[in-house]
Each structure stands twice: as structure tokens, then as C-alpha cells.
């Protein structure tokens, strides 16, 4: 009786192998750092012999990535924030499972930080974009064309500050009639709230080039705490020889947090803008010029 139960338990608990599709092969690997800790969300790109990307994905929480491919030669590129990219060449055979085992990624040198002091956001090389759902269907992409801001870099970078002011009337979705509606009292109400402002409170280093910039956004007369998921891109030199620093950032806003309910339209059954709005920033800044005395 006991042996029968053991056999039954073994039969039901044995892991099942996922079958490989007919005419394909399987490929897998585990991505880890130099301490053999798994890397979650490492980017994986698989390209064929012609250089065409055929698979793109990320590793799971255990650092594992698996896929199936047509038989042939492939290059597999691994990348992760704060680590040096890794490139492997692999052959995938029909009906066979090919494993690269554990691939260790080496830590990349940290990018140089901006010099302490005031940096002016360059509006000619900066974009403030947003993405919203329109009437519950397609996405609307837009931007704000007028804004200014200053980044104060502290000796201790985590004590740095960022202040950005955006002209709400400069909203631009590429459709004049829609833009006028967005400027109206039903939406941004630019006559009463001509500006929105973000003021940072804290810079938090999340490792590698990733930072979280925590602060307060004042929009439509309401202030809310938000966090910008930020990727620092380093230091470069502009066409006129000027020093530049750059980063990209994003966050998600809930429109009702800022009293943007637009209930008169919802009562008419028009879901003009979705409940959430994604904001994306590409920022370049140059050292603030000290006024001559």
C-alpha cells in the first residue's frame, strides 16, 4: 500500500517537459552576475544569420530565458543595466534542446556623473511626451513644446534637486481641434492653471545607471507625490564643444488624482482619455552660465 502511494506521488509530481514544436529547436540560458546571483529582466535579443532579430525578451526572476527557434545559426545578445553586454553564437538543431548554461555578466564601469553645480535643461534637446488611451481604443501621443528647468547636482548626488516648469497651453497632439479641447476647462483649464511644475525631493540610486527621482507634481491646482523611473545616460560633448549630460525618465499618472475627471463627457458616454497617462522624458542639460558681475 505504501509503495503504491509512493509510486502514485512520484507519477503526479514528476515535472513535465514542454514539447519542442515540430521543425524547431529549443534554446535556453540562465543569466547571472559575477557572484552567481540571477539577473531578473536582463534583455535578450536573438538574431539570425542575416542579422534580423527573431526573438526579443527578458529573463524571469530566476534569471532564466527560454525560447524555440527554427534550426540554424544565431547570435544571442544579453544586456542589463550596470553590466557589460555579452554576445554568444549558438547553433539550434531540429528537435534538440540547446542550453548555454549559466552566463555570467561582468559589472560595467559606472558612467561619470555631472560636475556639482547648476545645470540648465536645454529645451532644444529635451522632449516632454505623453501617451494616453483615446475613447478606450487607440493611443494618443502628444508632447508639451514649452518648458524650462534646472538641475542642481550636489556633491552627494542623492541630495541633488530638479525643478521643471511646463507651459500647459503648449500641449500638442498634432490635431488642432483636439488640442484646443485639451486646453479647455473640461481638461487642463489652461486659463486658470497655465503651468504644471515638478520639484524633486530625493534622488535614489537603484544600481547601475538606474535612479528613482522622487518629488511633487503640481497639476491642475493639485499636488501629488510621484516617482520618475530614470536612466542616467552619462556625459557627452555637443557640436559647439559644450559639455552635456543626459537622462531618460518615465512615470504613470492617474488623471483623477489631479481632479481631471471630465465627468460631463463621461456622463455622455465619451471616455475621452483613459484613467492613466504615461509620461516620458528625454532630457539634456548644460552647465548653467554664471552671470557676469
From TrEMBL:
The lineage of its organism: Bacteria, Bacillati, Actinomycetota, Actinomycetes, Kitasatosporales. Pfam families: CarboxypepD_reg, YceI. It comes from the Bacteria. It comes from Streptomyces nondiastaticus. Belongs to the UPF0312 family. This is YceI family protein. Residues 118-286 form the Lipid/polyisoprenoid-binding YceI-like domain.
Amino acid at each position: 500500500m505504501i509503495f503504491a502511494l509512493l509510486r502514485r506521488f512520484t507519477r503526479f509530481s514528476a515535472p513535465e517537459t514542454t514539447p519542442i514544436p515540430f521543425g524547431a529547436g529549443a534554446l535556453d540560458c540562465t543569466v547571472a552576475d559575477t557572484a552567481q546571483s540571477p539577473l531578473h529582466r536582463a534583455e535578450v535579443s536573438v538574431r539570425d544569420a542575416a542579422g534580423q532579430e527573431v526573438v526579443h525578451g527578458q529573463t524571469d526572476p530566476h534569471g532564466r530565458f527560454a525560447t524555440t527557434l527554427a534550426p540554424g545559426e544565431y547570435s544571442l545578445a544579453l544586456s542589463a543595466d550596470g553590466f557589460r553586454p555579452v554576445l554568444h553564437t549558438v547553433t539550434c538543431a531540429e528537435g534538440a534542446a540547446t542550453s548555454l548554461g549559466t552566463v555570467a555578466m561582468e559589472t560595467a564601469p559606472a558612467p561619470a556623473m555631472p560636475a556639482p553645480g547648476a545645470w540648465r535643461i536645454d529645451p532644444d534637446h529635451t522632449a516632454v511626451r505623453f501617451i494616453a488611451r483615446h475613447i478606450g481604443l487607440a493611443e494618443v501621443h502628444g508632447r508639451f513644446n514649452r518648458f524650462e528647468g534646472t538641475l542642481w547636482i550636489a556633491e552627494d548626488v542623492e541630495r541633488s534637486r530638479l525643478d521643471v516648469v511646463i507651459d500647459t497651453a503648449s500641449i500638442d497632439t498634432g490635431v488642432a481641434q483636439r488640442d484646443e479641447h485639451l486646453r479647455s476647462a473640461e481638461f487642463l483649464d489652461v486659463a486658470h492653471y497655465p503651468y504644471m511644475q515638478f520639484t524633486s525631493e530625493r534622488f535614489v540610486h537603484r544600481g547601475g545607471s538606474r535612479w528613482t527621482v522622487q518629488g511633487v507634481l503640481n497639476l491642475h491646482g493639485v499636488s501629488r507625490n510621484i516617482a520618475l523611473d530614470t536612466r542616467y545616460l552619462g556625459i557627452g560633448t555637443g557640436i559647439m564643444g559644450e559639455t552635456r549630460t543626459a537622462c531618460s525618465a518615465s512615470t504613470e499618472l492617474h488623471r483623477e488624482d489631479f481632479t481631471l475627471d471630465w465627468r460631463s463627457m463621461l456622463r455622455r458616454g465619451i471616455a475621452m482619455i483613459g484613467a492613466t497617462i504615461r509620461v516620458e522624458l528625454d532630457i539634456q542639460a548644460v552647465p548653467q552660465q554664471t552671470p557676469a558681475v
